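Subject: sequence -> structure tokens, single chain

Hey, anyone have a minute? Need the predicted structure for the following. Not urgent.
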Amino acid sequence: MRSIARIDSMTLFDRLSFRKIAAFVAAAGTAFWIYTFQALYPPPGSDGGFHLIAVLLLGAIFGIFFLPAWFLVAIDRLPRLATAWGLCGLIAFAVIWLAP
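Reply:
Had a minute. Here:
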């Protein structure tokens, strides 16, 4: 009976650590998404807001990857999936941000 309680506590610890990792990844993606508004906003006197197309694309990545990750963290379900989904979002952000 003692070993069963030990296994349950280890599972709980693993679940909480993945939840914290998922929350950190989602927070990093959210912070970067907010940063893109400042970084890509056209300066005064420029010829237009063509750069805002990139902000829309990055906003779509935020909605596809980070909103579900935040939702899974909030309801405390599938923390490993939330972590993996958030990491995929960070990779997608990096690919779009570093594109020429």
